[in-house]
Amino acid sequence: MKIVVTNDTDTDLPLFFYDINYTIRDQHGEEALYFHACFNRENPTRMQHDYELLPKIEGKGRFLGVNIGVDVNQKRYGKSWWGEGEVKIYLDADHPLPTLSGTGTEDYIGTGWMVGQYANLYQGCLLADHERMRYCFYRYHIPDPVYFHSDIRVTIQQIGIILPQDLEGLRKAQTPVYKAGTGLVEMDLTRFQLFELFEREDDWSSCSYFYLDKPENSLPPLASIEDRLEGL
Fold it and tell me: pTM score, two decimals?
């Protein structure tokens, strides 16, 4: 066994500690699973293309959860709400509709209305900077396990909502705004009603965790530190 930790930055760590637990000569059956992690970032995301928290992988295992970071494009969308997209978990060839589908970003982490900073054991939001419009949150499926037997893919939609107080900022940006749904249909902001769902392109990153019945997966290698931190 060999465990390596690498500091990819040019800053020394002021403190680093670790604890490794292991056993010797224990017998592990064929049903034992391997722990995996998947980092992803899109800057920007693409309209009508759900952001992939976990690209499709094949095999048998268990989805453990995800950490997510969002850096909102304020120049384009102001302070309008970005988190109306549904989390979709596709299991065992369930095409085209997912087996599990959420009702919005904040609902996935249990806040139910916008997001604020809090931390619970299995879900929370560690950063909710409403001024800079930067957010980091997590959801771990420990008491509510998500198993798959042949394949899995986990995504989240890139959808926001426009409220009356958002109109001035969007008009000043002079950027086309497209309605959420099939086909890019530009929204007429002069005929705005109570609220509207719309397609977005922001900076999203994530790290998903899962068990798989093999030590390797088909995911691409981890991006370089330059790509992971570009523009931050």
Answer: 0.92
